[in-house]
Amino acid sequence: FMRKVVLTLCASLRMSMNVPKSGYRVFSANSSAACTELAKKITERLGVEMGKSVVFQESNRETRVDVKESVRGQTIFIIQTIPRDVNTAIMELLIMAYALKTSCAKNIIGVIPYFPYSKQCKMRKRGSIVCKLLASMLAKSGLTHIITMDLHQKEIQGFFGFPVDNLRASPYLIQYIQEEIPDYRNAIIVAKSPAAAKRAQSYAERLRLGLAVIHGEAQCSESDMADGRHSPPSVRNTTGHTGLELPLMMAKEKPPITVVGDVGGRIAIIVDDIIDDVGDFVAAAEILKERGAYKIYIMATHGLLSADAPRLIEESAIDEVVVTNTVPHEVQKLQCPKIKTVDVSMILAEAIRRIHNGESMAYLFRNITVDD
User: What residue ranges are annotated as transmembrane (predicted)?
Assistant: First the structure.
């Protein structure tokens, strides 16, 4: 009898060792149909079905998430595209992650191509670093890994206590330049501000093109406005200790707009990570036209294109605006035919496949340097 028991245990042990790796599921946390298009493209490339879930807004505008299948012990990928209603999308993602966490999912990985609040990643005046707050909320909800694309500042990855894969859209945008812009060899890459010079330099070196930088501003920016750091006033009526005598910091005075580099008789390609308020891009295009550029393209990863951006682009000197599908912008494309889209679902799908199979992500970052 004992011999039979031992043989049975050995057989069950061998069977347990041959159990295949636990599966994975891909869910979409968006409640709007327009935002699920990217998730559908990713699942089609992966050859898997979308996870069964329902995300909707109740009558009092509260977000509700119902997961319709078992996820126990599985690796879950949540694809969340950020629409104009940013705060609703964040709540959808948080509630979806928490629902999966409480359903005993093994790993919960957020696929967030455009990371919201990424511009609020530094302390300004008496504000707050909202991006750090969002990172803490995502970790608390149950996420264990994030896949994103072209963070506004790469240092945002340090806000998280778990892995963050910051993919790049530049290979697809560079491919578009090479295939869709006639005579791109006569082009010059333009940074619309010195802050964007590193990104522009990366494009210029890969395309073997020249580089130009726009410096200065036509009007005072927000940074030139009254700042709380000027208080208390320099003249104090108190008779007590006056404190340390610090050197007086001279106020900044920005020069009028100038273009460093020759754009005359060339195609100007302005590159950036986000195009939202297009006022700066329209002003840059006018300056480039005055300096002799005969065609102007804008290449950006995230096309937020808020407010009346489509109309301003249509009426401007810009010939074409090329963005990726990290953010839905079909309505803006209907309003402005100059807006073109590049699909980046392939690299997102490949990142999901490699993470699930435990493969190296180095292939997706080949030839990517620290400055890119």
Answer: none
What the block records as the tokens of 342 is 């590049």
Contact call for residues 126 and 144 (beta carbons, < 8 A):
no
Tokens of 158: 């340090």
Q: What is the greatest pairwise CA distance in the chain? A: 98
Distance between CA 175 and CA 108 in Å, rounded?
33
Q: For 68-84, write each residue's pLDDT tens digit.
A: 999 999 999 999 999 88
Cβ-based neighbours of 8, under 8 Å, separated by 6 or more: none
Strand partners, 128: none
Q: Can you tell me which residue has the tokens 């001279």? A: 250
User: pLDDT band at 307, cuts 50/70/90?
Assistant: confident
Task: Give dist(CA 25, CA 46) in Å, integer.
Answer: 11
| CA distance linking residue 190 with residue 203, whole number of Å | 10
Asked if residue 232 has a cis previous peptide bond (ω within 30° of 0), the answer is yes
> Among 274, 264, 352, 345, which Cα is nearest to 309's?
274
349 closest CA partner among 113, 118, 90: 113
Q: What is the DSSP letter of 50?
A: B
Q: Which helix (H) or strand (E) holds 17?
A: helix 2-17
pLDDT digits (tens, 9 = 90+) for 239-264: 556 667 778 878 877 778 889 999 99
Query: What predicted TM-score, i.e. pTM, was given to this entire model?
Result: 0.85
Using alpha carbons only, what angle is made at residue 170 by residues 166 and 173, rounded to the nearest 5 degrees? 140
* φ/ψ (deg, to 5) at 105: -65, 145
pLDDT tens readout for residues 189-231: 999 999 899 999 999 999 999 999 998 876 544 544 555 555 5
Residues 6 or more apart in contact with residue 231 via CB below 8 angstroms: none
Name the one residue in this structure whose structure tokens are 């964007």: 196
Q: Provide DSSP, 44-90.
A: HHHT-PBP-EEEEE-TTS-EEEEE-S--TT-EEEEE----S-HHHHH
The Cα 69–Cα 67 span in angstroms is 6
